[in-house]
């Protein structure tokens, strides 16, 4: 079922009526849904997983998602050129042993590389940045899911994809 125009209440009704098992929404939509006054009035028992991407998500929103929908939540990162995902915030077994608060922190991040994806973040010099949540850089990626180039746009392809790495 496709909901043509986003309206929190209609999406919640649709999840219940159509017994949706998995869906992907942007954080803004999820925030509106969990904060809708009728959010708790629906049966979401069919939902196994909610995914979202396209923007960062607040840890408190992830908490409300888990409480409201009673299913797993996975934050994603990807782009059109890498259809669909580069990263997923699926918790490994050792992270599942952490406190709920620490798990929320990890679920609110973009996660780790998708299967078959090589990803790193580099600075202006092409050096890999520290994974300290402070240093910023450009994401470069390699994998079978990365486009080989833009249709009939060789110059744009050369600027975006170098040595099999997309940025």
What can you tell me about this protein's structure?
- This protein has 2 domains: 1-115, Rossmann fold; 116-167, Luciferase, domain 3.
- Helix content is 29%, strand content 20%.
- The chain has helices spanning 8-18, 27-34, 59-69, 93-96, 100-107, 154-160, and strands at 22-25, 49-52, 72-77, 87-88, 112-113, 117-122, 138-143, 161-162, 165-166.
- The strands form 3 sheets. Strands 1-2-3-4-5 form a 5-stranded mixed beta sheet. A two-stranded antiparallel ribbon has the order 6-7.
- Strand 2 (49-52), helix 3 and strand 3 form a beta-alpha-beta unit.
- The chain starts with 7 loop residues before the first helix and ends with a strand.
**Sheet with most strands:** 5 strands, mixed
- Biggest sheet: strand arrangement: 1-2-3-4-5
Provide the helix percentage: 25-40%
Strand content: 15-25%
Shape, principal axes of CA atoms? globular
CATH class of the largest domain: Alpha Beta
Please, how many helices?
6
| CATH fold type of the largest domain | Rossmann fold
Which consecutive residue ranges, at least 5 long each, have pLDDT under 50?
Answer: none
What is the count of β-strands?
9
Q: Termini, distance in Å?
A: 34 Å
Q: Give, in order, the helices and strands.
A: HEHEHEEHHEEEHEE
Integer average pLDDT: 93
Oligomer: single chain
- SSE-based structural type: alpha/beta
CATH architecture of the largest domain: 3-Layer(aba) Sandwich
| Count of discrete domains | 2
Radius of gyration: 18 Å
């Amino acid at each position: 079922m496709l909901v043509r125009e986003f309206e929190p209440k209609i999406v919640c009704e649709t999840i219940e009526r159509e017994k949706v098992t998995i869906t992907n929404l942007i954080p803004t939509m999820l925030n509106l849904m969990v904060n809708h006054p009728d959010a708790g009035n629906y049966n979401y028992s069919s939902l196994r997983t909610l995914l979202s991407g396209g923007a960062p998500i607040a840890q408190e929103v992830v908490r409300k998602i888990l409480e409201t929908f009673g299913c797993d939540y996975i934050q994603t990162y990807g782009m059109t050129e890498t259809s669909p995902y580069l990263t997923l915030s699926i918790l490994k077994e050792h992270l599942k042993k952490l406190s709920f608060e620490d798990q929320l922190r990890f679920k609110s991040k973009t996660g780790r590389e998708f299967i078959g994806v090589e990803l790193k973040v580099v600075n202006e010099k092409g050096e890999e940045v520290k994974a300290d949540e402070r240093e910023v850089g450009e994401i470069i990626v390699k994998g079978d899911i990365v486009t080989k180039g833009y249709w009939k746009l060789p110059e744009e392809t050369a600027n975006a994809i170098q040595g099999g790495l997309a940025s």
